[in-house]
Amino acid sequence: QVQLVESGGGLVQPGGSLRISCAASGFDLDYYAIAWFRQAPGKEREGVSCISTIRSSDGSPQYAESVKGRFIISKDNHLRTVYLQMNGLNQEDTAVYYCATTTYAGLGCDMIGLVSSRYGYWGQGTQVTVSS
Questions:
Q1: What is the DSSP string of 114-132?
Q2: CA torsion angle for 126, 98, 74, 101 (degrees, to 10)?
Q3: Phi and psi at residue 92, in whole multiples of 5°?
Q4: How many CB atoms lie within 10 A of CB 72?
Q5: What does each of the 132 residues of the chain score in pLDDT, given as a tens digit?
């Protein structure tokens, strides 16, 4: 059974940093892309970043333009955990952050992209609030 459990959210001041985590179980991290999405109140869910280490695909992580240069996604296969390091946070980054994985084995981020409908498994989310 696929499970994704996010943690590490909280309150941070503008300009600060935060690292959130996604503990994954029930599937092989080497064969499925994993992504972070976020949803702010009154807004649609937005793709933030994707990571995959599938040999048949380009292994470069993907980032939304709004977070490029500030956020870093990484993965620890041994711990079965995906991280999102968020730096230079601003109020526009306030949202619930969700971890998700696809049902498409063998397709990397370059093919899946940050399209929420392509991700079939979701965590419960973790709240990130940027405020002074």
A1: T-GGGEEEE---EEEEE--
A2: 140
A3: -70, -15
A4: 16
A5: 999 999 999 999 999 999 999 999 999 888 899 999 999 999 999 999 999 876 655 667 899 999 999 999 999 989 999 999 999 999 999 999 999 999 888 888 888 899 999 999 999 999 999 999
